[in-house]
Amino acid sequence: MNRLETIAILLAAWLAVAFEVSFNGFRNTLGAQISLLPALMVYVALSSSLPSVALLAIVGGLLQDAFSANPLGVTTLALALTGFLLHHQRDLVLRDQLYAQVMTGFLASSLVPACVILALMNTSHPVPLTWRLLGQWLVMAAGGAAATPLVFRLFALVNRLFTYQALPESHYRETRQIKRTRY
Q1: How many C-beta atoms lie closer than 10 Å to residue 16's C-beta?
Q2: N or C: which end of the chain has fewer CB within 10 A?
């Protein structure tokens, strides 16, 4: 993990929260705002180090809580739990397969709101459990499932543009013998 990837992850978290705050099209059309942070957390948990997971959970969660009605830190805990679980099991996930990205994004995008609701039930801001809430939860999970492969493609493009590419191998063997003669 290099500094450029860390900066790109934090910039993507900031842009994701800014998009959620400023664009109400999904909220007006579907009845729920699609959160992009769980999709970003899936990428970071499967591709980066544990400090990057913690950094995204803290920065992304605090940014999202600053613009929502949630108490500060509730989304941070949910993102951290999701990120740590995925990072712990990342050797079992086929991160390069499209269906695995979609399913992992669906699971993460449904786990984060569920953890937020569970945390809010234990505070002075209880959430009423209704059918409308279930519909919003499904919309958020489906939106996160659709966004996760896009996040993987975006960071593959960033890595391809800003990192050195491996040199092609030489057609000479490394174990070749060079005969040196006087003439």
Answers
A1: 21
A2: C
Displacement of CA 121 from its chain's centroid (Å): 25
**Least reliable range by pLDDT among 58-67, 92-101, 142-151:** 92-101
Burial 61-87, CB ≥16 within 10 A → b, else e: bbbbbeebebeeebbbbbbbebbbebb
Q: Locate 8 and state its tokens.
A: 């790109």
Domains held by the chain: number:
1
Decide which of 168 and 94 is more confident: 94
In a domain, 131, yes or no: yes
Would you call 182 helix, strand, or coil by DSSP? coil
Q: What type of residue sits at position 133?
A: L
End-to-end CA distance of the chain: 51
Is residue 79 within 8 Å of residue 60, measured between CB atoms?
Answer: yes
Quote the pTM value: 0.84
Work out the mean pLDDT of the chain and round it to a whole number.
87
Structural domain of 27: 3-162
In sequence order, what E strands does the chain have? Answer: none
